[in-house]
Write a structure and sequence with these properties.
Length: 288
């Protein structure tokens, strides 16, 4: 699977941060406290969004392996992480393997790893992680891939925190006649192969929850919807553009009405009267 454009990742990061379920975050913080040093595996890390959100909340000493296939995302991620460290007056040291961010109270070691998560996991299996995390990844994956993930986490006895998995819910306000047809095609596209095999799309969060429970985990599954108002006009426009492109590719016969629908949606965004809710779920799983 190739990565997403880094400007899209930057655009969604603030919205992701306020959308994550607070009860799950509080439970994750409590779980982390007994760990003297916390090892974290971040799958599909992009530019490091998960680290930037979670690191200040968890233990004082953390070792992160940041895994992504996209070299541009990893390179941009290092720049973002250096800037993030500077804003917090953390010292930065780099060697051939990792980036070390330190203050008097906190120590982070960040190890980037370019890896195709759809293929060979041998580099991941060499060392266990206490916490396996990902954001906006689950709905791209297949049932076979999720089973592999669940079994590997169980072998490590790792906790699992997966945030912001799309669940198929899209609601625009004001509503337009073609909204349901667009949503249906988007969700159909969600189930196409994204590099991991036939994607589960909106069914992925519940599928992983069931599999982890079968393996002995206690699982929390909580909604984490995006709620976009007029102030999120750039985000709404980006989603509208991407969804219109997906519908056009999946259903060329939709061209006759899609252009009109897209133009009217964009007018509502530009007039700052558009609202958009997009459903997601957060998952936290821990072994007894």
């Amino acid at each position: 699977m190739t990565g997403f454009a880094t400007d899209w990742l930057d655009l969604r990061e603030p919205l992701d941060a306020v959308s994550r379920d607070p009860e799950i975050i509080e439970t994750l913080i409590e779980w982390s406290r007994p760990h003297a040093a916390l090892s974290v595996l971040d799958l599909g890390c992009g530019t490091g969004t998960n680290f930037r959100f979670l690191a200040p909340l968890l233990n004082e000493e953390q070792h992160w392996r940041l895994v992504d296939l996209d070299p541009d995302a990893l390179a941009c991620g290092e720049q973002r992480l250096r800037q993030w460290a500077a804003e917090r007056t953390l010292s930065v040291r780099a060697d051939a393997m990792a980036l070390a961010l330190e203050s008097a109270e906190r120590r982070y070691r960040l190890e980037p790893l370019r890896l195709d998560l759809a293929g060979d996991w041998e580099p991941l299996e060499r060392s266990a992680a206490a916490l396996v995390t990902a954001s906006a990844l689950l709905d791209l994956t297949s049932a076979v891939w999720l089973d592999r993930l669940a079994r590997q986490c169980r072998a490590w006895r790792a906790a699992v925190y997966i945030a912001l998995s799309y669940d198929g819910y899209i609601r625009w306000e004001p509503m337009l006649d073609r909204d349901d047809q667009v949503r249906e095609r988007i969700n159909r596209h969600q189930r196409t192969d994204k590099g991991f095999g036939p994607a589960l799309g909106p069914d992925a969060p519940a599928t992983l929850a069931i599999r982890l429970r079968e393996l002995g985990y206690g699982v929390m599954l909580q909604p984490s919807p995006w709620r976009l108002g007029a102030e999120h006009d750039a985000m709404q426009t980006a989603l509208l553009s991407g969804w219109s492109r997906v519908v056009r590719q999946l259903d060329p016969m939709a061209t006759d009405w899609l252009s009109g629908w897209t133009a009217e949606r964009q007018r509502l965004i530009d007039d700052r009267v558009s609202r958009l809710d997009v459903g997601h779920w957060d998952l936290l799983a821990r072994l007894p």
